[in-house]
């Protein structure tokens, strides 16, 4: 069991209950090419990029450690929606995914993400949900249009739609995920944490992967610089189901603030 705030002798009040977490989700994704010069505002200088990005809206069911009891005793702690912008980056000869922005709608998902280095914020996230007994949207199929959006405060950050065309084996991937864990010191004598880490993602599986035509609307936020993503080309859209396990991160190296921007 992980013991973080709120502290107690049992750890039962901790907002995150375990280091190992299991995930299953439905993803709506748009693959785009972005003006890479505009990305210099949000991609640290330690990375290079060709401007490829994946913008996604997701719904998750999750289990923290062995706490399967939460699936029935407190479902609120096992469900959340998420939205993310992942960018293909190059680092020391390898190809990786880096997330300059990510949003969720539950507190435990925010804190759990920050522990690993995900840049999560709270937002309103909505997406199409399919159900086998709903005639208009009972399963992914050719011609079905699905979509979603993320808004924060009074601002629409982005909105996507995908019209499905064909079933395929795998969605696009930019490789392993690199994250930046950043915990600045708040007082004299305290130590800051600024480090580049690699996400330890295991048991990755995909089913019901569909490809289609996509539409995207990039908005603007007072506190979210999504307008840095100036889209040059919409490549494709995707819908799929995914499952995986995250057991933490591994340190790549310590960073200096001057290496970021």
Can you put this structure into words, describing what you see?
The protein is mostly beta strands and 261 residues long. Helices cover 5% and strands 52% of the residues. It contains 2 helices and 11 strands. The chain has a 7-stranded mixed beta barrel with strand order 1-2-3-4-9-10-11.
Overall structural class, as computed from helix and strand content, comes to: mainly beta
CATH class term: Mainly Beta
Low-confidence parts: none
Query: Globular, elongated, flat, extended or rod-shaped: what is the shape?
Result: globular
Largest sheet: 7 strands, mixed, barrel
E-strand count: 11
Descriptors for this entry?
Acetoacetate decarboxylase-like, seven-stranded mixed β-barrel, mainly beta, 261 residues, globular
Secondary structure: elements and pairs:
Blueprint: E1 21-34, E2 52-64, H1 70-73, E3 79-91, E4 94-104, H2 107-116, E5 120-122, E6 124-127, E7 145-152, E8 155-167, E9 177-183, E10 193-218, E11 231-254
Parallel strand pairs: 4-5, 4-9
Antiparallel strand pairs: 1-2, 1-11, 2-3, 3-4, 6-7, 7-8, 8-10, 9-10, 10-11
């Amino acid at each position: 069991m992980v013991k973080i705030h709120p502290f107690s002798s049992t750890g039962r009040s901790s907002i995150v209950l375990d280091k190992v977490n299991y995930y299953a989700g439905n993803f709506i994704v748009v693959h785009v090419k972005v003006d890479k010069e505009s990305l210099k505002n949000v991609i640290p200088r330690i990375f290079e990029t060709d401007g490829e990005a994946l913008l996604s809206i997701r719904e998750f069911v999750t289990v923290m450690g062995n706490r399967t009891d939460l699936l029935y005793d407190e479902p609120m702690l096992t469900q959340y929606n998420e939205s993310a912008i992942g960018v293909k980056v190059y680092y020391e000869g390898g190809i990786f995914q880096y997330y300059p922005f990510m949003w969720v709608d539950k507190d435990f998902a925010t804190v759990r993400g920050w522990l690993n280095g995900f840049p999560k914020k709270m937002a309103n996230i909505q997406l199409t949900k399919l159900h086998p007994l709903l005639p208009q949207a009972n399963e992914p199929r050719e011609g079905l249009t699905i979509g979603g959006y993320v808004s924060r405060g009074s601002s629409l950050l982005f909105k996507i739609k995908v019209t499905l065309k064909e079933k395929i084996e795998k969605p696009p991937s930019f490789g392993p995920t690199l994250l930046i864990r950043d915990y600045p010191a708040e007082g004299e004598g305290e130590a800051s944490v600024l480090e580049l880490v690699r996400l330890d993602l295991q048991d990755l599986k995909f089913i019901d992967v569909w490809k289609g035509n996509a539409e995207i609307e990039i908005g603007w936020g007072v506190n979210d610089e999504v307008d840095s993503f100036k889209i040059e080309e919409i490549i494709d859209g995707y819908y799929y189901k995914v499952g995986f396990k995250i057991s933490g991160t591994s340190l790549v190296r310590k960073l200096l603030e001057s290496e970021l921007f």
